[in-house]
Amino acid sequence: MESSMNLPSIRRCSAVAVAVAVAVAFAAAAIAPAHAAAPSSKPRSDSYVEQARDIAQAQPGPHEGEGHTTAYPFFAQAEGFDLVFRQRSLHPGASIGEHTNDKDEIYYVLSGRGELMLDGHRRQVGPGDAILTRRGSRHGLRQFGDADLTIIVVYRKPAP
After folding, report:
1. Same domain flag for 134 and 99
2. Where in the sequence is the signal peptide annotated (predicted)?
């Protein structure tokens, strides 16, 4: 079978394709949103906004829990800020292992379903549930179903 294109015209087509690919890459880089950059690890003393997608961290279930989670440690770089404000998504089958609290802590369920163990009692939790665990309380949380269990976790940082 004979090709209808000769070698010089194939080379021109290849050169054009490479030029188009390079131009597209430069254009994409020029219009890429600012949030694509890695978050700064330097302390910050200003007021600022963070996007969850910029700070997401894949982690195993905390407190020797099971499975995979994604943590979103908002304002971790905020200098002099004495609160931890974290979103955590427990992916299917994941858990926060049972542990005894050394501080007061709040979980707020944004989405999904789970089973909470709080001081020996088990109950189902879902969107809109707020859970207060006091210093000395024992608790753990397990994701149920096909959807991620997404919570907000808030507590005071220990004094330096």
Report:
1. yes
2. 1-36
